[in-house]
């Protein structure tokens, strides 16, 4: 027994005729008769009587018709309620954004979500990209932007952009002046100010050093992006950033950078959510808005 059979039965009772019900329901008459027969077999009793004037329900049929009408109205109401949830997202949505992407995404995302879906309670968490990965997998975040090119178990990911990493130093640094790139081996030997693990840039640099059979000269570990740039601007060392990140912030005007070459180091930005856990309606709405913002900020897989 299913709702379709109950709807067919109500049609038969309403029209008092299988042929007229079949026409109204747009079902072949033999098929409708078969549905009625199966329904009677399911309940183990006769539900209608065939008379010269048409079809009339038995006492059991009348009871079924009353309950079926209530059940179908309830299901229709439930369907409308669920559709309303989808069409008017509400409730909490938690989005993780790495610190390096916060200046260009956090405020635009918050404004767009507020304007499009005022009933959503958005929470944006900024932090290290490595932590974003852990928090998505643990369920603390509904979705997040993460860095990494390799397959990540337990995640559904969408490609956002790919960016080349640069060696960044003070604006007046003679080592960087008049050059178009710096070899990776030379960059490794310089005193670097880097975030601690599991920051994405730190892992990218160490992975490339491992492949090149070199080691990273870490002079300082600072888990704060703007403070790293301020220290580099003061001449305390160098760091590794994308060009996009280097040109934002209070210290940006006092910094310069060169692309790292031989080998070039790229990092991939992905939008991720947990594979085994469906996103709530509010999170899906925030996800759609975030995708739109990212599409406006990138072209052909690179930042504008």
UniProtKB/TrEMBL annotation:
GO biological process: regulation of DNA-templated transcription initiation
Keywords, ordered alphabetically: Activator, DNA-binding, Transcription, Transcription regulation
PROSITE patterns on file: HTH_LYSR
Alphabetical list of SUPFAM superfamilies matching this protein: Periplasmic binding protein-like II, Winged helix' DNA-binding domain
HTH lysR-type domain boundaries: 1-58
GO MF terms held by the record: DNA binding; DNA-binding transcription factor activity
Family: Belongs to the LysR transcriptional regulatory family.
Protein name: LysR family transcriptional regulator
